[in-house]
Batch of 4 targets.
Target 1
Amino acid sequence: MDWFPVRMGGGSSESRADVILNWTSASSGQKQHVMFDILGERENDIPWPGFRVRPCPAVDANSQECVEFIQSHLDACDEGHGTCDKWIPKTINDADQGATRPSRLLEIVNESGDLGLLLKDATNIEGNYTALSHCWGTLQEAQKIPILTKDNIAERLSHVFLASNLSRTFQDAVHLTDRLGLRYIWIDSLCIIQGDKEDWNSECRKMAYVYGSAYLVIGAAYAKDGNGGLYAPRQLRRVEFRTPTGQLVKAVVEDATKSRVEHNAWGSNRKFWEAKNLPLLTRAWVFQERMLARRTIYFAASELVWECRSKIDCECSEMMMRERSGQASSVKTHYHYVFNRCTDLARFDIWHDIAAQYSSRAITHHRDRLPALASIAKQVNNHGECVCLGRYLCGIWEQTLPDGLLWSADYQSATQVPNGTNDEATHIRSTNTSIPSWSWLSIEGRVRTSAASKQALVRITGIDYVLASDDPYGECTRAEIKLVGRVVPVDIFISTATHQVVVRARNSREERPLVADTRPFECSGEQLAEANMVVLQVGYFVRMGNTLFWYCCLILQHERDGTNRYRRVGIAHVSKQAFASADEESIVLV
């Protein structure tokens, strides 16, 4: 077994002293290793140069030390963060006065020495409350989550039920709320009537206020389901020993690999939705909860993470130092900076980030794709008393059309085989048929939305968009865009030269890569042979010193229903030769 120093820092706040331990497994004979970060909590704890000094996480996440960490940040936020204390402005689309509070809260009561809960009508409750952000888990685990139903709501309103009968995550959240001196808590499954479409719709449109007006949101970041609880076992040890010369050494040793993954997971420029030990951040609903909350305390695998509209911090202060030095910023703090201070153009720009972030996350029910983004869209679009970005059309703003149609699936390569035998399914078409194919929300998988093209080459002549309710950010029953543009027939096949799926206009020999909406491609080889595919010219951009430009085009499949209706299947960049003899046509995107 060997120890190797990997890197020694220079004593600054960002310097590190890393040690790697190599050994050979006795059972397998394979070489293994682990990297440690060694640091001191106070000056002179470690008498040698190169070791950092910083606050360290508590050994036990369920300790009074952690409660004090939370309380100190709450106090500082209350006293010094005007942005966090600011009430979310009532938007012009919230017609009913009750939209700014959750309909129900759970009151925490002491029941013979045990904590109990009593469901309350929250209409006249003005006290502070916490809200829980958590993972339901797999369908099997989700069925074990305690829920509110039409059958038990009368009993829940009149009788106390013990917190000890709830899932571990719920129990921990209730006890933490009580330790912080708060009387009420909001938990989705216990405050929204499950299986009641009317109640769900009513509460869903209040999410901006449920999380935005919560005094604190508790994020069970480590738990993959209700059994995980808030408090992860921590891989951190405090050691104390004397050197051969008699010097006292006090050090904290932690798994450097895990701690750095967690720190990197919160920056706006990081793929934090892929952090495997933070399952909460992989969920689409939670992304909305994160953006809407005034402040959240996350119980991660290695330490607590505080995130409010003004700052991000952790027990070891690493993230706060990164943000102060400009090395990283929280996606949430950037979002609220734009929301409170910037122009309508900046709101359009941040919507590109929101689309990429949101589309990267998983969602259990396809029907929730629109509702789980609705409150963010509402917040982005309302600036004071005016709607600044125009009508909301399934994730696309009307003012961005036609460029808003030029989104693309974001995957490493477009080399998938149409029958899907050689590639992992990363992008699939949603089973929610109410979402049109021209919306990026119709795809489950990460997407990239487009900035403005040099010039729009298609004309929008009509939009037939029928809402399912009076909520302008809610579900729709019909979504069709009528437009006029140049269209030419194309063939889609696998290039023998590049082995990519390519598009070739039938009047041209040029082959262009297809960025399909789905991966594997939703049309099989046999379907492609029979499909009536066309390419629609939408806009253009210039490349190679303004000497060559490509048309940004949608690849569409005819519906074969005797109409001029087309469904989107992908996007491609096509040269002008393909449209040399093309005439304008009137078509309908569905």
Target 2
Amino acid sequence: MKKVSRKVTGVVGALILATSLSLPVYAKDEAKSILFSGGLDKPGIYVFDPDTLKTKQITSGSSVDLSPDGDLITYINNDSVYMANSNGSEPVRLTNGKFPEFDSSPRWSPDGKKIVFARSDGNIYTVDAANRKVTRLTNAEDGVYHSSPDWSPDGEKIVFHSSDKNGYADLYMMNSDGSNITQITGKNEKNSSEYAPHFSSDGKYLLFEKSKEGETDIYVMNLATKQAQNITKNFDQPVSGSIWSEDGNKVLYTVNEEKGKEEESSRFYIMNKDGSNKTLLKLQVDFATPSEWQSLNPEKEDNFLNKVKNFLFE
């Protein structure tokens, strides 16, 4: 799979990955719309109706994630973690990022009480949604940047990727309190990067991306055996992001295509978790800033957003 190499260099490179990979989430039925963030002219979080092909902005920001009960979203705005109603109303600032320090990749815990996120100092944090207490979970060495955290379905584990001083990223897992950090990829392979990990809904598999020698592919790892399968090995187009369907049987991903000499657009596809049966979604958007997706029930637009996953277009 041809693509620009994902070697990560320095704070900016690490946080490009950290704003992380919030990907198309598979809608459970065809009546549902999609919430995403992006846009060149007016960046923000939008609702896309697949029937009318119309979009509506609900708030500014990026890296959106939905609370487990569907009532709230968390997202990044003004370099900080925010929380709001699922229609974008009544935003509350939870952290106080101020450039050059900034936060990224917010993700709700399965119980809806905390939000895990990455910060530009290279560490992973949580913030309590009720009292706004921020807790640092990691102590990254200088030149090392942890990013793109994701909770296990039971809330006991957090997976993330970490870039080393040479600029390559590997996947790690830790307990939800920050203890027992364990490396799970890259031990026997150099000059490659694994990043943007996502737990399957049953907690048995990890979906992630791997970049080596200018090629990027999507992998699925069996956590019991630690065996990973390349599910885009035979694809002829560059992929830029991936996320599980709600049932864990399908994967949604992004293909960036050149429209002209200086233009690019993004198309979104669904495939089986073994890489078969690739299907194009209707939505095509300009290649732009980090874009997040989630499915939305248009009949109750203020609520019942399905689980949102984060991904980034590099």
Target 3
Amino acid sequence: MHFSSTGRSKPLPTPNKSVPLLHNLLPSAPTSPPTPAPSPTPQQRAPTWQTALDDGDIFLREAKSYFSLLGRADRQTFLAELLNLCDNQLLGFVHQFVSPKLRKDPFETFPNELCLRVVDQAAQILSFIDDPKTLARASQVSRRWHDLVNDDLTWKVLCDRHSYRRMSEDYELKFNPYLPTSSTYRFNSNFNRDLQQLQSAYGSAHDPSSSNTSAIASLTGIFGGPPVRRQRTKTTSYRSHFKQRYMVEAAWRKGGNLKTTHITPDHGVVTSLHLTPKYILVALDNAKIHIFNTEGEHQRTLDGHVMGVWALVPWGDLLVSGGCDRDVRVWDMSTGASIHKLRGHTSTVRCLKMSDRKTAISGSRDTTLRIWDLEAGVCKNVLVGHSASVRCLEIHGDIVVSGSYDTIARVWSISEGRCLRSLAGHFSQIYAIAFDGRRIATGSLDTSVRIWDPHTGQCHAILQGHTSLVGQLQMSGDTLVTGGSDGSIRVWSLQRMAAIHRLAAHDNSITSLQFDKNRVMSGGSDGRVKIWDLATGQLVRELSQPAEAVWRVTFEEEKAVIMATRGGRTIMEVSGDPY
């Protein structure tokens, strides 16, 4: 039988092999004509017809099987013969196909521990390259390398190599407040003492005394709670932490955003500048106190003093001020309200510090120090002993140290209200003092800096090198930085009691000075603000355009504030926001 189709019918191809007879057919029976194949049932597989492509597949399988049986030498001969038959186009294809297979990523086979050790070594090398883009390129080597480079251990190593603060310390600073900053206050050891005191303050709520004024009662949070720290966005990995710290450091080296604000229409002398987590505070000799937010936007002006304001000390929303009108005033900066006017001094209040959120100590030209209860608004003690103006003071724990124009520094007990010892040795007025609980440093008009033991009163060292008044000094750990009217800055090692760096910083007096673990910032009456590398003593850059005079500078980790005179006007420049 034949298939019936349009046109001429064609017989089905007959296989080469003979078809076996079915068992029910007699051998003598005639051969049945070919019949169409039955339609496959759902359980049966449809017949397949072999094509030229199938023949090629069979050839490839046989060739691969043959090649796999050859030895290495025979395989090389076989391949060489095949390649000799190829033209350039085919050889190009072979090259493109073979090249990726020749690239071996060892990190695909190394265990994780070994890979991370290699990354650690690579990170040590990369730490000398001041460009994190190198790591970004390294992450593109392979998928495995990308995973390893993005491992937090790699970025933790880089953070350590760059001496970036640990994430745990960032977390502490976010949730543990500290006393607000001044150019001579923030980096001394009062930080630890204040931090401990403030941490203990979280444990109990404050119940104001019934004898307090209604203003005090309404402002219980000012005295009863710790100051609030401006919170930085918490990083979630060392990679993001490194990026954040790197951008901050780059901004210090190359410059961040700069905002200039004119705060007075006339010429005003800036007597005090503080940068706190919430505020920028400026005191002037025209009796004004200006409050700005940390972006340099004016919030309010505190009016109350009738003569120049010469001293400020902030704590959270609380502010204590003193000046030529002999008054000490207590303010609520969040509202601008005056809480107390404290009277007792008979001459200009020249310096102020706070030992805790309820206690302030003031030093005056009337030769006395007074200890004030800020909550009750009364004087608790009068410290008498100096014979000339009290120019500077510093606090650590229950101890306050003061420097005077009588050339003497004194050590006092705050709780007992008495002088513990007198430090005599300078030949002229004392203008600056620092105290960290272990050592006292004093700077004098006699051009020397003396290091004292607060427990024995002995002078451990006399640091000489300045040629004029030493009016600026700051101490942190075993490092002391001093600035003089000779325009020079000196960085001292308190372990060796010797100068590490001698910087010819300014053409005239150093008017303001501050340092942290990385840099020194200085302002001078030559109108310039400069940043120095603390480790090398090299000039990093000038922070601002030259002015007629620079009154004060202060900075924190991500922001700097400059008070200067330019064009006959008092201006404030805020530099920061590296992101």
Target 4
Amino acid sequence: MRRLAMVILWPSFLVAALAEGLFFSLFDPADLPLDSMAMHMSPLGAYTLGFFLFWLFCALAAMLSHYLAYVPAERQPPF
């Protein structure tokens, strides 16, 4: 189970770091409308939130890919 978690989380961590670098090189967190929400967020908070959201989405995509790659092919439809 630990190995599976590392196979999923480590590549998604690297891709999230690249995605955050690309996203925040195009958009400045000070220019994003984060103040209109109920919480007021500093630029550092926006970087942190953005990284964890990118990491979450990349991990979900990696888990789905791993699941679809290792699901046994069934001959009968499930319904």
